[in-house]
Amino acid sequence: MTTIARISTKSGRVICSIILFASASLAQTPKPWPAQTGIYFPQAPPLQKWRRSIGVVFTTTPPEITEEVRISVPAVDFNIQRALSKRFYLTGRIQTQFVQSNLGVGLRWATPLTERLSVGAGYDVSGWFGALRIKDVFNSQAYGVQTFPSLSVGYRLTRDLQLTVRSEAIIDLYYRSQVGSLAVEYNRREVNGVAFAAVLEQPFYHQRRVSVGVRMAYSNFNWQLWSLYDTFDRNLLYPQLIFGFIL
Predict the structure, then answer these.
(1) CB-based contacts of 76: which residues, under 8 Å, 6+ apart?
(2) What number does CATH give the domain 57-73+111-121+128-246?
(3) How much is the pLDDT for 221?
């Protein structure tokens, strides 16, 4: 009887040890990272929810166009997104400098590969237009349509900080400009250039988040500088600084 009692006591200790070990293991299991709001990160908004941001985009003029004068042209930047499903969502974007504006719509697809890594693809169409009138001396206007197929990779550096890298092709569909009675127009589809962007999205204050990044466009034309009527038939580098408050 004594032997049986000792065996039972040892078995009970072993079972208790296993239970305590399992409980400790469950307690140490890290909690899944909650989804964070982002405009550039490849992630669809929650269903029935809107995602918005407002900020500024600064574009620096290439020295080939403005020579020794380097101008940083700001544009108000407003973004809006709406989920169609867990993977697909619609996007809208307005950039304006009052005398010229760019309106865009797009369709995006995004999916997580791991808890930290996500990928996405998109196709955006934008129409830009501008008008510049200086009394009765100078009267010009222009408008056009471009598309931007894109691929994005997002990586969550921490629970709150996420980095997105995006590559885009810039494709012209239509262009028309007019100065007085003289007009130039073409509607051929051609690749105008490429663009690469890197954007960090992180907390700012009172649960607000911000987007901060750079975009480097290497293209033959930039809609914000249409009124300069450059004569360069080659690609130029257009650096951009992105800053936005996620609403």
Answers:
(1) 54, 55, 56, 94, 95, 96, 97
(2) 2.40.160
(3) 87
